[in-house]
């Protein structure tokens, strides 16, 4: 039973390739598991190797002003370099705080009433800091977008009148590249968001709003379509048992539209992530996008390899975000969404 | 016979681009308490529309539906509906589907324990207790329809409305469910309106069969009382002279008096319909049915 549950959760969470490995460990129909392992693990692994080989060969043939295009090996060592830099920076930060504490201790020993301060370390953000910033930003923008888009979508789905009224606005706003909004957002935020002790930095808010502006639409439209297309008989059941308006929405409309809402959310988070990187590059807002731009401007012999590390990272994170939404969808919504 | 449910001279118009379309014309039907009525007719003749008006899901343009001397024009649990495609909420388990209706209908009238007991009792009636924790997606079509019936029965309706409840099921499953329905009916003696296009089903289950003319402006054509003793057994009835006589009467109505050629028939008035040249298959069916 425990094994069954584990296997079930692994498939739901997108780790289907681990299923035959676990079954094999229990020596359950080993022949079949062997075939499954070949299909789910060996085959993709082989494709990755082929890809790396092509990349490696092609890279050695491309010469740029910054040296030859980085192959997989160079990129891997650049990645480990970035990790070393991260560790070194953390050590420096720790040493910095340690020094302050030591100094304060000495101060307090001399004079117990002395005012002591701990200053924040202001070293440059490491690669991992940039990843973290980007993730926080994309989730903030995505969350705000969802909070706005889902209720509006539900309202549009419930009321054909409202839907007809605002459809043109949505249709026109939807295709606008968020990068066109970026200058406006920047100006408005710096005019409106004035605070002596800001809880969030302006750049963070700019990036988050830009993400919000773009990833609202898929969620909104999918929610509206999902709510509008609920099986009429289900609504009639609600009418026969005389559910109130509010219960009708919470017990029938929302659960029925949940698969569509999740499809919208998944698309939203995916494009939110793409948009964020572009916005960070353009606006020089902290995050992975800025890292890429800085490396490009830096133009050292290592730059291209470091940018490739960022490219791979962005891809991996996008993939993880998508799997995360997919898993959430499977766990919460009632339909069996395909991969 | 005292009238329990009075479908009184109802007509309905649907708006179309070319003006109102009269789907039903003065449908008039008086139903006694505990009676089992089948509505039969060709597809598109407005059987479902009658049911939806009784359910309160549609509003009649003229006429009224009177239940226990009170006019009804809103949907309500006193006229529970079993829909053709079961209409269970796919995200709720079998138990929760019935519970949702019970909780809403008996709000403030039943305690938590009573609600649980009542849900379980009704699932027991349709022999679905074993699957109460399953989701609709995990059970067969016949089982889903059983749950749909349990949900409707659990509302303790004055009239149970069934819209081709077994239409989407295979013949064997359908027979099982018909038997189950007859058993439940023997126990609860509900007032039922069943829509069907299955002649055997209508004769087997009904006290009266109401045959509807073809649309537009469809109305009640003939009413046939089925005086077969209950309980009825499908196997013994197969050789029963009365049973075959009733079957033949319904078939005659459907395939001769209301024969529907592929086109044009729907635009003709009922009295203009004549025996079409193309109704050979109907005749064959009739001969088989009457043993001729």
Automatic annotation (TrEMBL), chain A:
Keyword tags: Cell membrane, Membrane, Transmembrane, Transmembrane helix, Transport
- The source's superkingdom equals Bacteria
Q: Does the keyword Membrane apply?
A: yes
Residue ranges of domain ABC transmembrane type-1 in the record: 131-325
Give the chief site where it resides. membrane
Bilayer topology term: Multi-pass membrane protein
Q: Transmembrane ranges? A: 38-58, 131-158, 179-195, 207-231, 252-283, 303-321
- Tell whether Transmembrane helix is among the UniProt keywords: yes
InterPro entries in the record, alphabetically? MetI-like (IPR000515)
Q: Provide an example Pfam family for this protein.
A: BPD_transp_1
Provide the protein's localization: Cell membrane
Q: Which family does it belong to?
A: Belongs to the binding-protein-dependent transport system permease family.
Protein name, entry field: ABC transporter permease
The species this protein belongs to is Zhongshania aquimaris
């Amino acid at each position: 039973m425990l094994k069954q549950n584990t296997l079930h959760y692994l498939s739901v969470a997108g780790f289907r390739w681990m299923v035959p490995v676990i079954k094999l460990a229990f020596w359950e129909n080993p022949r079949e598991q062997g075939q499954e392992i070949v299909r789910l693990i060996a085959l993709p692994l082989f494709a990755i190797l082929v890809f790396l080989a092509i990349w490696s060969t092609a890279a050695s043939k491309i010469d740029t002003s910054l040296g030859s295009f980085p192959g997989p090996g160079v990129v891997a060592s650049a990645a480990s370099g970035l990790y070393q830099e991260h560790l070194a920076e953390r050590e420096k930060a720790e040493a910095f705080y340690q020094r302050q504490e030591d100094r304060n201790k000495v101060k307090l020993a001399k004079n117990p009433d002395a005012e002591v301060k701990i200053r924040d370390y202001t070293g440059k953000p490491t690669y991992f800091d940039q990843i973290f910033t980007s993730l926080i930003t994309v989730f903030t923008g995505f969350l705000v977008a969802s909070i706005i888009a889902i209720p509006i979508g539900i309202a549009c789905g419930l009321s054909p009148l409202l839907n007809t009224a605002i459809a043109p606005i949505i249709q026109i706003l939807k295709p606008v590249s968020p990068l066109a909004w970026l200058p406006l957002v920047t100006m408005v935020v710096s005019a409106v968001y004035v605070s002596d002790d800001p809880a969030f930095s302006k750049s963070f808010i700019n990036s988050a709003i830009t993400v919000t502006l773009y990833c609202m639409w898929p969620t909104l439209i999918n929610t509206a379509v999902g709510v509008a297309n609920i099986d009429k008989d289900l609504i009639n059941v609600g009418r026969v048992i005389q559910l109130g308006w509010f219960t009708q929405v919470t017990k029938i409309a929302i659960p029925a539209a949940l698969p569509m809402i999740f499809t919208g959310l998944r698309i939203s988070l995916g494009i939110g992530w793409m948009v964020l990187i572009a916005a960070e590059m353009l606006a020089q807002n902290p995050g992975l996008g800025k890292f890429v731009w800085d490396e490009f401007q830096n133009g050292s012999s290592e730059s291209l390899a470091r940018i490739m590390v960022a490219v791979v990272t962005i891809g991996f994170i996008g993939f993880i975000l998508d799997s995360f939404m997919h898993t959430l969808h499977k766990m919460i919504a009632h339909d069996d969404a395909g991969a | 016979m005292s009238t329990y449910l009075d479908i009184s001279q109802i007509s309905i118009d649907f708006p179309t681009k070319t003006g109102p379309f009269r789907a039903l014309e003065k449908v008039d039907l008086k139903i006694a308490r505990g009676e089992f009525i089948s509505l039969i007719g060709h597809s598109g003749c407005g059987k479902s529309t009658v049911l939806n008006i009784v359910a309160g899901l549609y509003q009649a343009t003229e006429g009224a539906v009177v239940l226990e001397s009170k006019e009804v024009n809103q949907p309500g649990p006193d006229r529970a509906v079993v829909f053709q495609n079961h209409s269970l909420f796919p995200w709720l388990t079998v138990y929760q589907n019935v519970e949702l209706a019970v909780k809403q209908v008996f709000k403030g009238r039943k305690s938590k324990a009573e609600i649980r007991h009542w849900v379980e009792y009704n699932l027991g009636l349709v022999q679905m207790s074993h699957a109460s924790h399953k989701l609709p997606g995990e059970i067969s079509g016949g089982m889903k329809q059983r749950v749909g019936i349990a949900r409707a029965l659990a509302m303790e309706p004055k009239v149970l409305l069934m819209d081709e409840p077994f239409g989407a099921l295979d013949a064997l499953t359908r027979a099982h469910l018909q038997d189950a329905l007859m058993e439940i009916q023997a126990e609860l003696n509900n007032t039922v309106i069943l829509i069907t296009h299955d002649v055997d089903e209508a004769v087997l289950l009904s006290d009266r069969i109401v045959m509807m003319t073809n649309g537009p402006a469809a109305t009640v054509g003939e009413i046939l009382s089925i005086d077969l003793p209950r309980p009825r057994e499908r196997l013994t009835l197969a050789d029963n002279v009365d049973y075959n006589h009733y079957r033949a009467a319904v078939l005659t109505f459907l395939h001769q008096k209301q024969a529907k050629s592929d086109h044009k028939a729907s635009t003709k008035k009922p009295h203009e319909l004549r025996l079409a040249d193309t109704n050979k298959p109907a005749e064959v069916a009739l001969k088989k049915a009457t043993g001729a």
